[in-house]
Every structure is written in structure tokens, then in C-alpha cells.
């Protein structure tokens, strides 16, 4: 795994090459040249099986989507994942699915670049409104846990009236919400509560 992570050629002239050991390498073209300081990418995130890699490439240009994720697999064309302006990436343990988290949306893609999305919400009372930010992703008994923090506002907006932390547990790969736990007035992360209806990925 470490060797695969290091098998990376820095972008030159708008391209980048990822090595997959004996399986060969994959070249990603069409990237903005690396010498522009307003462009950056994360190290490739290899799947647990080592047969795919996700590369998050970001721009600081108004005319571009801020970040794009590319899916590279030996012997196959590079795929640009739709709606991939995410801040975090995570492979499932079996390497079948890639999970991404944006500011307030969770996305899941398979190895054919097909995807689905879910938006976690805090439990609110009355006519409250909220602005939320996803803070963390992790697995629990093969389900996905998503923790987020929220600023709460009254029905007419104005100043924030409180703070919530919420953790939603999703079944994989459906992204069906199983449980939602919200804590009021606390910076402590809400518990990812179990569910007897939890689904398992293949």
C-alpha cells in the first residue's frame, strides 16, 4: 500500500501519473499545471484492494467547480466523478465504494462512477432553521456514521440562537438513514446509535 501511495508523478503540463505496481500506471490529463499556486491536489487515495485510486484535485478559480474527484483504475479510462466537490474521501472496507463529504452532503460512488447522495439534517423543533457542516466520517459495524455541527436560527433568521451536534447512521450502499442523534447546546459529538435494520454492503 505504501509503495502504491508513493508511485506518483507530480503534475507537469497538466497531467499526473499514478502507479499501480505490476498492474501498470494511469495518466490523468487535463489538469491545470502545478506551477499555479491556486491549484492543489491530495495524495491519491488507494482502495483497500489496491486496484483503484481516487484523486481530489482543487482549483481556486471562480469559473471552476472548487474540487473534482478523478477515479483511476489500471486498464480503464479515467472517470471524472459527478458532483464531486467534496472535502473528505473514504473507501469502504471492501473497496467497492468511494464515499465523499462536502459541506453538508454525503456522496457515494461505485467503481463504475455511478453515485447517490444523502443530506443529513439535525432534529429541530418548531420553525427553527439551521446551517450545518459535516465534521467527520467513519464506519461502525459496516454502516456509515456522519457527524456534523449546526448553528440554529429562529424562523426569521438573524443571530444564531443555539448550537447542535448531530450524528446520522446510514446503511451502505443505499445511504438509507438508520438513526439520527442530536445533542443540544453541546460541542460533544453525538453518538452513532445502532440499528437492528442495518444493511451490509456486499
Automatic annotation (TrEMBL):
Please name the InterPro entries in this protein's record: WD40/YVTN_repeat-like_dom_sf
This protein's name: WD40 repeat protein
Biological source species = Deinococcus budaensis
Amino acid at each position: 500500500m505504501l509503495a502504491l501511495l508513493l508511485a506518483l508523478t507530480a503534475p507537469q503540463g497538466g497531467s499526473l501519473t499514478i502507479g499501480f505496481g505490476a498492474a501498470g500506471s494511469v495518466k490523468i490529463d487535463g489538469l491545470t499545471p502545478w506551477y499555479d499556486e491556486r491549484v492543489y491536489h491530495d495524495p491519491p487515495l488507494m482502495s483497500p484492494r489496491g486496484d483503484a485510486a481516487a484523486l481530489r484535485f482543487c482549483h481556486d478559480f471562480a469559473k471552476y467547480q472548487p474540487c473534482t474527484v478523478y477515479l483511476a483504475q489500471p486498464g480503464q479510462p479515467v472517470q471524472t466523478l459527478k458532483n464531486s466537490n467534496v472535502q473528505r474521501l473514504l473507501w469502504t472496507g471492501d473497496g467497492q465504494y468511494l464515499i465523499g463529504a462536502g459541506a453538508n452532503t454525503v456522496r457515494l460512488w461505485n467503481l463504475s462512477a455511478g453515485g447517490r447522495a444523502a443530506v443529513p439534517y439535525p432534529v429541530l423543533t418548531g420553525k427553527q432553521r439551521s446551517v450545518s457542516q459535516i465534521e467527520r466520517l467513519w464506519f461502525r459495524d459496516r454502516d456509515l456514521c456522519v457527524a456534523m455541527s449546526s448553528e440554529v436560527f429562529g424562523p426569521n433568521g438573524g443571530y444564531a440562537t443555539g448550537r447542535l451536534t448531530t450524528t446520522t447512521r446510514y446503511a451502505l450502499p443505499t445511504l438509507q438513514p438508520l438513526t439520527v442523534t442530536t445533542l443540544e447546546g453541546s460541542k460533544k459529538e453525538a453518538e452513532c446509535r445502532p440499528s437492528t435494520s442495518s444493511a451490509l454492503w456486499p
